[in-house]
Structure formats: structure tokens, C-alpha cells
């Protein structure tokens, strides 16, 4: 609830999570995450950078085919792909996910493949990160993804509002047309 969230936002001077002065803050929004990686060590390391206060729920899968199934079943805010995967590299999945959903997508590729993959993903909005990388770079990339997702959210809301206005105008036009037809066919004067 809102009061619980406000209470949790207070900074405590006590030990939290085993570290003096660490802040436990729940964000106003949390982001659902699909983590696609066949490397268990990478997944474990990345999960440590995804606190449940900011990222929840987190779904982890080890193949592109499983990731496709999950994206088809549920909407995710963020999709993180550690390429390559056993059944596919992940490039086309990243492009398809960006094109067919409102998820922000991060594709991690080996450094020597970065430029080639970048040229193929640029026009689709896939964020690309070369490996190896560091925790601070991944954390910063996650923040960029969240900012991108918020921009997409605002666009979705604006688009929905515009569609509602168009529907209202269509309904109003339809009602006026029906009224005009009735008046014309029955020779009733409009009062």
C-alpha cells in the first residue's frame, strides 16, 4: 500500500542488508524483467544487480525458444539477452521484441561482434552492450532501459488518449448521421 511504500522509503541509519547506511527504497514503479541467458554464472551476477525493489517479477530462461514463448504469454518492461544462446544467437529475437512489443531490450554481445550487430539493430531501438563489461556499466544500462520504458509508457498513454478522442468523434458523427437520416426520412423537423 502507499503508506507501506512511504515507510520503506525512509532512510535508516541502521544496518540494512548487512551494510551500514545502505538505503532500502522502493521505487514508484517496478519493472518486469525477462532475462535470457544460457550462462548460469552471468545470470547469477546479473540477478544481483536487479533488486526486487526496482525489478519485479524477474523471469529467467535459457533459450530463445523459451523466451519467445514467455514474451507471447506475458508483457515485460525489460528484456535482457546474453548472446549467444544454445538455439539461436538472439539478434532476431531482440529485433522482433523491440518491433512487436513495448519492452526495452538490451542485447549483450562479444566485443568483436559489437559493430556488426550494432549496424543491424540500430534502426529497431535495441540497446547493445559489449562483453565483457562491468557491474557499473550494466547498472547504468539498466537505468537507460528504464528511462526508455517510461518514454514508451508515456507514448502508449498519449496514443490511447488520442484513440479515445477519435472514437468519441466517430460516435458523435455516427449519432448525428443517424439523427439526420431519421429526420430526413420521416420529414420530422428537428426541435
Give the N-to-C terminal Cα separation: 53 Å
Total number of beta strands? 7
Largest sheet, described in full?
A: 5 strands, parallel
How are the strands of the biggest sheet laid out side by side? 4-3-5-6-7
The low-confidence parts are 1-26
- Give the amount of beta strand, in percent: 15-25%
Name the shape in a single word. Answer: elongated
Descriptors for this entry?
18% strand, two-stranded antiparallel sheet, alpha/beta, disordered N terminus, five-stranded parallel sheet, 191 residues, 7 strands
If you had to describe this structure to a student in words, what would you say it looks like?
With 191 residues, this protein is of the alpha/beta class. Helix content is 51%, strand content 18%. It is built from six helices and seven strands, in the order αβββαβαβαβαβα. The strands form two sheets. The protein has a five-stranded parallel sheet, sandwiched between helices. It has a two-stranded antiparallel ribbon with strand order 1-2. Helix 5 (114-121) links the parallel strand 6 (104-110) and strand 7. The chain is elongated and about 80 Å long. The termini are far apart. Residues 1-26 have low confidence and may be disordered.
